[in-house]
Design a protein that fits this description.
The protein is α+β, with helices and mostly antiparallel strands. It has a domain at 7-132: Alpha-Beta Plaits. The chain has five helices and four strands; from the N terminus they run H-E-H-E-E-H-E-H-H. A four-stranded antiparallel β-sheet has the order 2-3-1-4, with helices on both faces.
């Protein structure tokens, strides 16, 4: 963990997000919406704000909208945990969750996304309840939860995998100079 940010700073950021999620759930109930979508990122280690994450979160929401979801922004920002967007969706949570799982798996860089779907009452819709496959590890093809619990991969290996996923989200384009800062 960085010297500048303590564990209590991260917990405070998590608590502030939770309050905003509860507000989004109240909005969903008031508007008779079908779900709340929580779009954020899921990174190992203390550094949660990496280049390209904001664009990746926005790209995921644009993709959901392009697939016909009716989303209304309830709250957005960036904190110690990285970028986040809380949205209210007209469609039911059970309809949205398979779409978010597909994005996390198939969108370039999508593995670093954390697209949670809640009912208006705040109940999470998880993959297992819909018969969907568990999230895969950053490094191997095993379930991520298993690798986390067993501490199967060292942090440096996980961070290298994150960088590889983020590179997929923002591939070099013709005519654009590569970013060589830090290269020796």
């Amino acid at each position: 963990m960085s010297c500048a940010n303590s564990r209590s700073d991260y917990l405070a950021a998590r608590d502030a997000r939770h309050a905003q999620i509860l507000a989004a759930c109240r909005l969903a109930q008031e508007t008779r919406a079908g779900a709340v979508v929580v779009a954020s990122t899921n990174l190992p280690g203390p550094e949660k704000n990496r280049p390209g994450l904001e664009i990746l979160v926005e790209r995921s929401l644009a993709t959901l909208s392009a697939r016909g979801l009716h989303l209304m922004l309830a709250s957005a920002g960036t904190d110690l945990l990285g970028p986040y967007r809380f949205l209210v969706a007209a469609e039911p949570a059970a309809t949205i969750k398979p779409l978010t799982v597909t994005l996390e798996r198939d969108l370039p860089g999508g593995r670093v996304l954390d697209l949670d779907v809640l009912t208006p009452d705040g109940d999470p819709v998880d993959r297992e309840s819909l018969g969907l496959e568990p999230r895969c590890c950053y490094v191997c093809d095993r379930p991520a939860r298993e690798c986390i619990l067993l501490a199967r991969h060292p942090l440096q290996e996980l961070l290298a995998a994150v960088d590889a996923h983020l590179a997929l989200a923002d591939p070099p384009q013709a005519g654009r100079e590569p970013d060589c800062r830090g290269a020796s």
